[in-house]
Amino acid sequence: MLTSIVDITERKRSEEMFRHALDAAPTGMLMVDELGVITFVNTHIETVFGYARGELIGKPVECLIPERFRNKHPGFRIGFFAEPQTRAMGAGRDLYGLRKDGTEVPIEIGLNPLVTSAGRFVLSSIADITERKRAVAQLEASVRERDVLLQEVHHRVKNNLQLICSLMNVQARKLESLPAREVLAECKRRVLAIGLIHEQLYQSGDYGKVPFSQYVRSLATNILHAADSTGAIDLECALDPVTLPVDKAISCGLILNELITNALKHAFPDGAQRRLWVELQQKSNSRVSMSVRDGGLGKPPSFDEPAAGLGLQLIRTLTDQLDGTVHATSNQGTTVTVEFPSIVRPS
What we know:
- By secondary structure, the chain is α+β, with helices and mostly antiparallel strands.
- The protein has three domains: 21-128, Beta-Lactamase (2-Layer Sandwich); 142-207; 208-347, Histidine kinase-like ATPase, C-terminal domain (Heat Shock Protein 90, 2-Layer Sandwich).
- The protein contains ten helices and twelve strands.
- It has helices spanning 9-23, 43-49, 53-56, 67-70, 73-82, 130-173, 178-203, 212-227, 246-266, 310-321; strands at residues 28-33, 38-41, 95-98, 104-116, 119-128, 209-211, 234-239, 243-245, 275-282, 287-294, 325-330, 334-341.
- It has a five-stranded antiparallel beta sheet with strand order 2-1-5-4-3. Strands 7-9-10-12-11 form a five-stranded mixed beta sheet, with helices on one face.
- Helix 8 (212-227) packs parallel to helix 9.
- The longest helix has 44 residues, at 130-173.
- 25% of the residues are buried.
């Protein structure tokens, strides 16, 4: 008889160190063999699932799985051992564990295959994500409340601006002076231009940005209908899909209102081509170009003259606020172009 004796002191010491390391891990550590039998759990697993360690060792891992998922788990385990590979935490779907008291706990699981002299195992790292789920739910509820609040704010601002316009209409009817009524009409158009921004935001799912290309078409159409009910002025729009922050959108809306209004006042004497082009272009250098071109015979406006009217002064001031430029050219009609950065520069 030949007897072979091997000193396994170091192996035992290594296994003991390995188990101590797993027991001290900040997440739950659970080891299962190919048959689905639990061979090791650490202290954190006891805390998460409410079992004592001795109650789990030797039990099938399915005792920790809610009944509605239990039947499919052996197939998942067999598939994992057929093609073992590490799966990080958070990869895959939402998972739930079953506590000793019958309640479910949301968990995240990471899987690591292990091959030892005793066979093949899977070491599962398990984290209780109850607090994370609760925090996410609270955050989602806060976002929904914020969206409802912002929607209500934009709705009320729009209604209040419409009320201001109604008051201007009442006041205008009491004025005998035609110039005074025209001044009120100009103020009303500016208020309506701002109100249309808030209407777009009220209808939009993103309350921080305005779908400005839609706004441009709506504003231009509204101004022309208000100024010429016969529809004798043709409107052509060439609009790139542009979104702008609220503050930029309001400034651009007021500029567009002034440009179209100015064209209607001065560009169409008798015999002029009654056509208006509005263009919005998103350039490759993160700048936006907005232009209004008429087919009329009007003189190009001069924005730098001291005697420039209120509308031209407003265009110049708002363009400066946008950190943009404005210039006018005349060739078979007048074109006024405002160009500005679409991204807010850091201060």
